[in-house]
């Protein structure tokens, strides 16, 4: 824990007078992640306005770094010193070359349609919706539908710097005012947080009444993201995670074909250790399995896909009622999962 920063003492900052990446209308929503008080923003530092807290947070290249260090696996120094957090900001040329020449084994079958639906729901609820994106350093698959509507304002946050990062924060303590956004998006995020239940509670807190949540979370995917890979959810486990939300829609987003390609790839990788060999195996595996994902266009809506999916989505609305475990279990229908 960086005691100097959390006690309000000065910490070294680069001279940087560039404007904040967050739109002016979004800056007023920011709150101290420690005590939820308002922040005073300058080009290089954000200061909590509660005298008993007075925590100082760095602003780096226009990006506020609002981390509650006592509750997070990250520190302010991780960002002021530009350490690698989740994404490797300087990948090797070999890794970059491999990414360019290897066909992808991934396919988010439902993402584009789901984001179009989310966009329409948002604009039917509000003429100027505000959307928090967790894991928003890069544009998620299908999110173009949101960008095409200028009325929708995005707060793109992440735990890593990236081309779209406008706010550094930890989802366990979202630094926004209660009830301040119309939607929260977490695409391929919740498997990478220590306590997904806490993160979903925070999503519920910052949403307005009836606000929307959209999440995509893996089920059958091997470990990825290095040390930051913690959990997986079945379809029913994913529904329980969002038990404080009324379901609008849910189902398979990445199908059995993609799950099979991942398993095959990691099966082959288990035979080798040397870095060059792993690169070669990844290339071979992708060349010999990438086409399996195309079966998912046919399989994704079939009942058996719920048991064999690579990942699920959930679209819901903030609710004041909680789905009980009894209701969850009673809602199980064998015919939904029988092949």
Structure report:
This protein has 339 residues and is an alpha/beta fold. Helices cover 31% and strands 20% of the residues. Strands 1-2-3-4-7-6-5-8-9-11-10 form an 11-stranded mixed β-sheet, sandwiched between helices. Strand 2 and strand 3 form a beta hairpin. Mean pLDDT is 92; it is low at 1-10.
Low-confidence stretches: 1-10
- This entry's quaternary arrangement is single chain
Number of domains: 2
Distance between the termini: 50 Å
Number of strands: 11
Give the overall shape: globular
Radius of gyration, whole Å: 21 Å
- Look at the helices and sheets and give the structural class: alpha/beta
Largest beta sheet: strand ordering: 1-2-3-4-7-6-5-8-9-11-10
Topology as H/E string? HHEEEEHHHEHEEEHEHEHHHHEHH
Structure annotation, total helices: 14
Please outline what is shown here.
By secondary structure, the chain is α/β, with parallel strands linked by helices. It has helices at residues 3-6, 24-27, 76-80, 93-101, 111-125, 144-147, 196-206, 235-241, 256-269, 275-289, 296-299, 305-308, 325-330, 334-337; strands at residues 39-41, 45-48, 56-60, 63-66, 130-134, 153-158, 167-169, 181-187, 207-218, 245-254, 311-318.
